[in-house]
Design goal:
The chain is α+β, with helices and mostly antiparallel strands. The chain has 7 helices and 10 strands. Helix content is 29%, strand content 20%. The longest helix has 24 residues.
Length: 283
């Protein structure tokens, strides 16, 4: 707001009226201690600057240095961690609010696929944690009506979905691959999961762990994946069962699944999330 130039400056004398007596006029023109200090302040600030103008300039100068102050705060480790965590939490909250279950990730023609042998092998610890396929089962627990151990044949008995989708890695690369499996939503129906719960938490044979929010778990493109390129999943790519979630970044798509829990509370969000990465990371 611009200063009102019609207002008298602090140094201007108070006008007299015809009705004033001489004594009153002398008293009116005599400066009080408060008035003297205001006059001196105005002169110190700038001989020709009004109080309103000074306030306006002061605000502008403050706005100029504010970014420097904020950047300086980031240099303090304790403040930096707090600001980053709050910013990441807000970003995750906003992203989750914008997520729509029926909004599909792009799908592609077979001609767009990267050859299977060139699909990158990305792991958390080892390329093959040594799962014994004959003994493997997925342990289901938490807010479900039918907890227990489920064999791969039971999951394969559900309707199969195949999709050509883009896999995006947080390391900076992306490829288009072909994935097949059962919709996670169909599996949750089979086990009688409480879909009003907030999370699906999974753990893996290589000790990796991850969570999905329920909206993402129920998305029609989220798969319990047991195929790539219409062939059984290989050990390097997460056999016998992994997540395929084309609406999320790669580290959300855990491999070598051995445990699935439906829950409202998670003690650990995910391996990378617990090191400061986004817990939602939608694409």
């Amino acid at each position: 707001m611009e200063a009102d130039d019609s207002q008298p400056n602090a140094g201007e004398a108070k006008p007299t009226t015809p009705e004033m007596t001489g004594a009153e006029d002398a008293a009116a023109t005599k400066s009080s201690p408060t008035a003297d200090s205001e006059i001196q302040r105005s002169k110190i600030l700038h001989p020709m600057m009004s109080e309103g103008r000074f306030a306006q300039v002061s605000r502008r100068e403050l706005l100029k240095v504010l970014p420097v102050v904020v950047l300086g705060a980031f240099a303090i480790p304790r403040v930096q961690d707090s600001l980053l965590k709050k910013g990441l939490a807000f970003s995750d909250w906003a992203s989750a609010g914008l997520f729509r279950r029926r909004h599909l990730a792009p799908t592609f023609a077979d001609a767009d696929l990267i050859p299977f042998e060139k699909f990158p092998i990305n792991d958390y610890d080892v390329d093959d944690p040594g799962v014994i396929f004959e003994n493997w089962s997925l342990t289901v627990r938490g807010a479900v009506q039918k907890p227990g151990d489920y064999k791969l044949t039971q999951i394969q008995a559900l309707p199969r979905t195949r999709q050509n989708t883009r896999h995006i890695c947080v390391e900076g690369w992306d490829v288009i691959g072909r994935f097949g499996g059962a919709r996670l939503s169909d599996f949750l129906t089979m086990i009688g999961a409480d879909t009003s719960a907030r999370f699906i938490a999974v753990t893996c044979a290589d000790d990796y762990y991850e969570t999905l929010d329920m909206a993402t778990a129920l998305h029609p493109q989220t798969l319990l994946c047991y195929e790539m390129y219409d062939q059984p999943l290989t050990r390097q790519h997460g056999a016998p069962l992994r997540l395929n979630v084309p609406t999320k970044v790669g580290y959300k798509q855990a491999k070598y699944l051995i445990d699935l829990k439906v829950t409202n509370v998670v003690e650990k969000v995910g391996y990378w999330e617990d090191q400061g990465y986004s817990s939602f990371y939608g694409l």
